[in-house]
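Hey team,

Filing this mostly as a record. A colleague (T.K.) asked me to run one chain through the structure pipeline before their review meeting, and I want the input and output archived in the tracker in case anyone asks later how it was produced. No errors, nothing strange. Just documentation.

Input sequence:
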Amino acid sequence: MEHHITVGLDGSPESSAAARWAAREARLRTAKVRLIHAEDWASPLDIPAAVADVRHGWAEALLRESADDLRRTHPELDISTQSIDGPPAASLATAAATADMLVLGSRGLGAMTGFVLGSVGMAVLHATERPVVLVRSGEDALSAESGLHAQRHMVVGVDISRPCDALLAFAFEEASRRSCPLHALHIWMPPTLVGYGAAYDPRIHSQINESTTADLADALKPWRDKFPTVEVTVRTPMGHAAQTFLDAGAEAGLIVVGRRIRRSSFGTHIGSTTHAVIHHATSPVAVIAHD
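Output structure:
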């Protein structure tokens, strides 16, 4: 089976960082890299052919220059390019249908405040069931030259009420590939009458935490047995799920979160914690679709 990583390019610094992140990941996976630029060239205003030619020329130059940049740093990689005429989200999802993952850039709110995932990125998450990795431009400064891409710890969020094989398989395989520690996190909140004011009972708090930790360890056991070389840290903090998760992943090399696949057009497609993480994390985020 041919392994490859698809990267969506739009000319932004974030998408350039995504391409460089994908190249480093491809080396770990012995995979090919496919650089894709997708744009809907059709226009109700009947853009003149000359203008359309300029846009096509810009796209081809973007792809060529990006590929040349990666080849200079990673001459061993097999890198291909493709310009697609069509709606970006649907085109990227189709192009990535057989890829190991799709990598996209995501714009930061500021120097250290996290992601802003645009409408195309959100639409891609909904349109594909392949793993999607979101990368900030600042990630290059942390991992490009230092080699830390494969060394910083990873964080994975686990729902112990419905543990997901696809999510844990990705997290453990990636941690094994990187030879890095994996922090498995389940965040819980106490029942209303247990956690506040005069009703607070530290013994009940301790019991809940012990039970939660045991449940998380049970959920991870098959994967720890399958990947015995992966160093796993089990954490079950109490707190607000999104903020606690963001704090835990602040220095991570990769954060892994899940989103449930919904076959219906009704209802949310991305849970509140995952939504917060993909918009505000300072580390790369892998979003894994699962049933």
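Quick notes for T.K.: The radius of gyration is 21 Å. The chain has ten helices and twelve strands.
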